[in-house]
Amino acid sequence: xxxxxNKLPKAELHMHVEGSLEPELMFKLAKRNGIELxxxxxxxxxxxYDFNNLQEFLDIYYQGCDVLRTEQDFYDLAWAYLEKAxxxxxxxxxxxxxxxSHTDRxxxxxxxxxxxxxxxxxxxxxxxxxxxxxxxxxRHLPEQDAxxxxxxxxxxxxxxxxxxxxxxxxxxxxxxxxxxxxxxxTDGFKLVAHAGEEGPAEYVKQAIDLLQVDRIDHGNxxxxxDILTAQIAKAGLALTVCPLSNLKLKVVPSLKDHPIKSMLxxxxxxxxxxxxxxxxxxxxxDNFQQLADAVGLNDNEIIVLIENxxxxxxxxxxxxxxxxxxxxxx
Length: 330
Ligand code: HPA
Ligand code: ZN
Hints:
By secondary structure, the chain is α/β, with parallel strands linked by helices. The protein has one domain (2-329): Metal-dependent hydrolases (TIM Barrel, Alpha-Beta Barrel). It contains 17 helices and 8 strands. The chain has helices spanning 3-7, 23-32, 42-46, 54-65, 71-87, 100-103, 109-127, 143-155, 178-186, 201-209, 226-235, 243-248, 260-265, 277-280, 284-295, 299-311, 317-329; strands spanning 10-16, 90-97, 130-138, 162-166, 190-195, 215-218, 238-241, 269-272. It has an 8-stranded parallel beta sheet with strand order 1-2-3-4-5-6-7-8. α10 links the parallel β5 (190-195) and β6. The longest helix has 19 residues, at 109-127. The chain is globular and about 50 Å long. The protein binds hypoxanthine and zinc ion. The site of zinc ion has 6 residues, from β1.
């Protein structure tokens, strides 16, 4: 591992906590909750982690969520991620969770948020990792489902900083969520949306113009539109890029073809993130390392990407400045 990648403190801004459910923990929670998994072993499960597109991954990902039943399950899930985050020298993380993937199975919203919050709060105390939680709407469901869920999110605004949009992108453009995002903005939530992962540049444009997002998750396809790319760069709107996810979901044919250098050259505030590390074969440092090896990132580019992770975070500017000074002093 490149020493710099290991050594530098960093922020992670795009990580679905349900996507950090390692197969071993999935089996452990299934046993604890008396659930029979449709796989007989970890190896049989891992053999399914061979995806041709986003939907093939999502089908397995939602199935995996079924083992999460109790507050302790959510705690254990988040704690396992935090231990990996500590190893990778993450000092701040902004994590996603998908409330509807739990409430639709009859798991109360409180069970998920209380377990996650307690773990991240402990992580802050014991591991020194600060955090924000972002609740995502599943875009393949009707907007009305998001509107119905929203009061639960609002009730827990003391624990939830932002609202996001994820799941199956094509056929579910950001405009579908304009009303509920407008309400969330009025209520003071930060806003993000997955856009331009599989969907076209037009979806990135809609996320910016109609949802008025503060950050774009993935955003790769904005590169198809030069004018839009220049606007995003000028506005300093960040992209949370996920290299191993892009590889595993065939957003890029190989890591060598990953557009990260072109993103940086065009002045985009790009960051590196793990997305669903248990499913895509690596946590944040693996994403940095494999990308650096494939496209030949130099030390300066690695430093810029790590600086960007703080600049693009939702931390107060005074705290961002402290992190940047620390980076400067290493
Ligand atoms: N894209 C869209 N939805 C998701 C993803 C992703 O990469 N991971 C979990 N939900
Ligand atoms: Zn994602």
